[in-house]
Write a structure and sequence with these properties.
Blueprint lengths: L7 H13 L9 E6 L13 E5 L5 E8 L8 E6 L7 E7 L6 E8 L2 E8 L12 E9 L4 E4 L3 E4 L7 E9 L5 E8 L5 E8 L7 E9 L3 E7 L3 E8 L2 E10 L11 E4 L9 E7 L2 E7 L5 E6 L8 E4 L8 E6 L2 E6 L2 E3 L3 E2 L1 E7 L2 E2 L3 E4 L4 E6 L3 E2 L5 E9 L6 E9 L9 E7 L2 E6 L5 E5 L6 E5 L7 E5 L5 E7 L5 E7 L2 E7 L7 E7 L1 E2 L6 E4 L2 E5 L1 E2 L6 E8 L7 E9 L1 E8 L4 E7 L6 E5 L7 E5 L5 E6 L5 E5 L9 E5 L5 E6 L4 E6 L5 E5 L14 E7 L6 E7 L8 E7 L5 E6 L10 E7 L18
Parallel strand pairs: 23-31
Antiparallel strand pairs: 1-33, 2-3, 3-4, 4-5, 6-7, 7-8, 8-9, 8-10, 11-12, 12-13, 13-14, 15-16, 16-17, 17-18, 19-20, 20-21, 21-22, 23-24, 24-27, 25-26, 27-28, 27-29, 30-32, 32-33, 34-63, 35-36, 36-37, 37-38, 39-40, 40-41, 41-42, 43-46, 44-45, 45-47, 47-48, 49-50, 50-51, 51-52, 53-54, 54-55, ...
Length: 764
Amino acid sequence: MSFARLSLASRQRWGLVTCLLFAASAFAAQSVAPIGGGNALTLPSQRHVVRLELPGGGAVWLLALQQEGQQGRGLGFFRSDDEGLTWRYEAPIQNDWSHPDRADLLPVGLDVALVYSYEGPAFMGSSRHDVYFQWWRYQPGSRSWTPSPAVRVFDSTQGTTGYGRAELARDSLGRLWVQAFRLEANGSHTAVIAVSGDGGLTFQPQPSLVTLSQRGGGRLLHLGDRLIFLYGHHGVSPAWFRVRMDSAPLGSWQAQQQAFPEGIYHGAALSAVSPGAGRMHLAYKDVAERLYYRAFDGTAFGPATTLESTSDWALQPAVTLKGDTLVVFYNPVISTNTHYTLTVRELSGGRFTPPRVLEGSQRFRGYLAAPERLPGSMTRVPCFYGETPDASSNGAAMVTFLESSAPPPGPGLEVVHTNTTHHFLAVDPSGRAYALQLGDSASRLYVSTDGARTWTFRARHPLGSWFHVMTALADGTLLANTSRNGRYYISRSGDGGATWSEVLLLDTYRMLTPRNIAELDGTVYLLEYQAFTTGDAPIRLYASADQGRTWQVRQTFLGHRHGHGLAADPARHALWAFFGDTTRQAGLFRSTDAGRTWTRLVAGQDANVVTATVLGDGTLLYGQDISYLPSRPHVAQVAPDGVYVELAQLTGPAYSTYGASGGGFVVGCAREPDGDIYLPGDVSAHVWISPNGVDWTMARSYPRLSAIENVRADVYYELPSGLLVLQLKNAQGFGSGGVGYQLLRFRGRGAGAAAGPTWSAPAP
C-alpha cells in the first residue's frame, strides 16, 4: 500500500515508525518456529512463556506454542538456554493439531503447572472440548522437564456442549484453581471453576461464577492474598469481576462488581500481572477495539490510561513486570491485516514512557505473548508474536527484545511470599517460626519449619491464655506476652513451643513489640509497656539470670508513660532503653552497669523511639515515633557520647527499625488515626530502606483497612535464609483485621553497604 493511500492517523504513525526504527533492539528478531497463522499465540489473557532459574546457575525459557500442523506438530514446548536468543523443540504437550489446544502456564518452584484447552475463532459443541491439567516436573540430572499424566478437569460428554479458554491460578494455601467457559446447549456460556487441594491429582467442581449470553473470556489471577476473576463477552459492555479471599470458605466468592464500562473485546483481549498485596496491572482492548491500562487496588479499578486510540481487530497487549517496572508490548495497525508494528511502553514511577517501536517492517504481527514477570536486574525483555505476510497466511513465531537499562543500585525490596492467614509472632535461631492462625483461638500456637511458608498446629497454652507478642532468645527459649482474665503474663517455653508455663505476672502492664526484651552478658531484660493511662506510670525493668525462669526488678523508672523497648550493645556491655510519648515523658537512656544506673542521652521528641538497632561503632540508629507537629519524625542516630544527628524525614511514626544481617536497614512507619504530620491523602503504612544507614528511600506502601486503627508494616525478625519478615496490621489486602505478613528480599546494594544481598528499584 502506498503512503498516499494511508489515513492521516496511519501516516502520522508511520512517520513515528520511520523516526524510531533505529531505536529498535540491537538483537534482531529471532524466529522460534513455523506456525499456521499469525494468531498462533492466542489467547492474549493466557501465559504462554515462563523463565526458570536453575540451581547451579543459568536459566531456561519454555514457550508453549500451537503450530497448527506445521512440522507435523500441534501444541508443544520450545526451549531456550541462552535467554531467548535461540530456540529448539523440547517436547509435545498435546500434539494432535486437528484439535488446536492452547496452554496457560504457571511456574511453581522449578516445576511448571499448566492447563490446556481448545481455542479457535469458532466454538461449537464437541465431546473433544475437554480441559486438562498437567505437571511438568524438573529433573535435576538432565536439567529437563518430564510430564506427569494429564488430569481431565472438565469433561465434555455431549456433542452440543464443550469447554474452552481454560486458565490456571494457585492461591497462597497452595490450592490449584482452574477456570474455563462451558458452551451450553442453548448457546449461552458459563464460567465454570474447579479446585484441587491435593496438588492437582483431583479437582472438585465449585459453583459456577457467571453465565453469559455470548462467548466469554477473562483472566483468573492470584493477587497475593485473593483470586480475581475478570471477565466480559463479545461486543458487550461493561466488564465485570468477582473476588474471593484465600482465607474465605472454599466456595465463597464475593458478588460480581462492574470493573469498567467500556468492556473487554471478546473478554480475553487482555494481559495482566499482580505485584502482590491485592493489586493488579491490566492492559486490555475495549469493545471499540482501543487499548487501555488500568490498575486494580484490591477493591476497584482506577482510571483508564489510553495506550492506543486507533482501533483494530488484531490489536493486542502483552505485559511483563520487570522488577517494579511494567513493560507493555502492543501491535498498532498501519494497514489492516498486513502491517502492524511491535511497540512498547514502560510504566515506572506512575508514568508511562512514550511509545517505542521495536519492529516496523511491513508484516502482519499477530497476538503477543510475554513472560509474566522477570527480575529487575534483567536488561532484555522478550516479546513473542506471530509474524506472517497477512492475517491468513502461514509464517513464524518470532521473538524481539526490549533493551532496557539495568536498575540503579539504589535500594528496593522484593516480595517473595505473602501470607494472609496467619499472625506472625517470632522465629528462633534454628529457623523455626511461630504464628497464630487467623480465625482460630489466640491460645493455639502454630509452627513452621519451611521458612514460614506452611504452618502446622504446635500446642495450646495450658491455661487457655492468649498469645500477643513473642521473643526468641539466643538459645531458642521462647518468651511470650500472654493474657487471661484481663491480666498479662510472661509465659515461657524451653521446648520450641510444645509446653508453656507462666513465669511473671505483669498484671495491667504488657509488651509493645518483641524488642521489649533484650539479652546482654547472660542476662535477659524486660522493659514494661502500659496502655491504661495517658499520664505518668512507674515503668519497671526486670532482669532474669536463668533464661526467663525467674525475674527480679532491676530498676523502676518514673516520669514516663511508655516503656517502648530495649537494645543491647554486647561489644560495649551497654543497654539502651526508650521511653515515650509526650515531649516531657520521652527519653533515650543508656546503661553500662547491667541496668543499675542510667544516663539520659536524648530528651523530648528527638528521643521518642519504639525500637532501634546498634551499629558497629556503638551508635544507635532509629526511626522516631512522632505524630504531631511541630516536630516531624526522622531517621536519627545518637552516639554513645550523646551526639545526635537526623538523617532523613519519614512519612509517619516509626514502630520498627531493623538492621539486616547481610547489610542494609529497614524502618516501618505507621499511619495512626490521629496526628497532623501526614501528607494530604496519605493513609498508608510505609517501609523505608537504606543500604548504609545514611541514604533512605521509601520502598513499599500498605493502605489502611480501617480508618480508626493504626496501619503498621514492621520488620522484627529475619529468617536464616536472609528473608525479612514484614508483619502487617490493618492493611488492605490481608487477612482478618488486615493482618498477615510478607517475606522480603533485599535486591542490589548501595555504596557504603556491608557485603550482603542485592537491591532492586523501589516498588510502586
